[in-house]
Amino acid sequence: MDRQILVLNVGSSSIKFSVYQQAADGLLKVLLSGQLTHQGQNREFKVDCFASDCFASDSRQQWQEARVDNNRKADVARILDYLANSKAGFAITLVGHRVVHGGTSFAKPALINEQVLASLRELQDLAPLHQAHNVDAIAAVAELWPSVKQVACFDTAFHHSMPAEAQTFAIPKHFTEQGIRPYGFHGLSYQYIASILPSVKPKPCLSRVLVAHLGSGASLCAMRDLRSVATTMSFTPLDGLAMATRSGAIDPGVLLYLLNNKAMTVEQLQQLLNHQSGLLGMSGISADLRELLASDHPAASAAVDHYIYRIVLALGSMAAAAGGIDTLVFTAGVGQHCAQVRERVCQQIAWLGVKLNTQANASHAQCISHKDSQVAVYVIATDEALMIAQHCLALDIAS
């Protein structure tokens, strides 16, 4: 049976979508990938086609159209309509969703039914910026394509293997029993890296692996035998590293002070921590690391210095959780494309046995560690969409 899988990654201001097909050899190949982004009162589409019959001419299409409705259901409906009317004649048999939060209930992907959907709605308070959009997307597909199976793939699931001491806060136990505990995120990215590391050349040691997912959102994960044992994000994606606009870890006393002494509201605090902090807040210039690296403004340099410092500090913590380090992987936008960040980080963790091949790093080679390094260092592109498609395929075959 030929399976075509639509993968939806629904965010607060954009939707990424991809179509995969199971090839004759059983492997998945991408036919199309695209993104719908809100630009003022318009929707902007960017679509890349990898099949031969999607478009009449160029393999990329880009256009804008007016937004009729300002909600995720309408956006998903527009994507489904686009695919249904494509020249390629897509016949989608499965839809996979990236769902930010699976709570304590979902340690693996799940076929979506009414019970699962109800559980996802109950988790919205744990991920208020994302979960509602995920649920809306699922509801839109169910309404428009009721016969198509849907699969929820969770960003938190990969971290269920963490030891008990890594899944609790030092607060009264009854709060933990209510689900107030570290979960970890970026799990689909980490799971993808774990799935391909055994095939990487030269073959790395897989006993103690640290992965740095450095994008606009950023986190680290420590793995033992490719299973998560620690990560820097915890109850929410706000914790851990300094990010583009998110604060990362901060003394809880600061938040109490802002509420009690600066008359900030909870809503203002949410805006501050999620959208006005990180690189943007520290520099006062930009959330884009590339702009800060190119700037000669002292505030830009100070923001980058702190960003690097937090990564280095957390890598030491992750190494402790893993019992050492054999392999280090950089991934996501900054991790994959910014040689300067990789070099500065590796220089500051030389005490862990890391030695960089500066020429390989500058050329963005896959293996960037020096031949004398005690730690193998790699640059590997992550692919959360493919990971979701693989989960969909496996779950469909099993069912």
From TrEMBL:
Compartment(s) of residence: Cytoplasm
SUPFAM superfamilies given in the database record: Actin-like ATPase domain
GO biological process terms held by the UniProt record: acetate metabolic process; acetyl-CoA biosynthetic process
Known pathway: Metabolic intermediate biosynthesis; acetyl-CoA biosynthesis; acetyl-CoA from acetate: step 1/2
Binding positions (Mg(2+)): N9, E384
Gene Ontology MF: a single term: acetate kinase activity
Function: Catalyzes the formation of acetyl phosphate from acetate and ATP. Can also catalyze the reverse reaction.
Name assigned to this protein: Acetate kinase
Species name: Dasania phycosphaerae
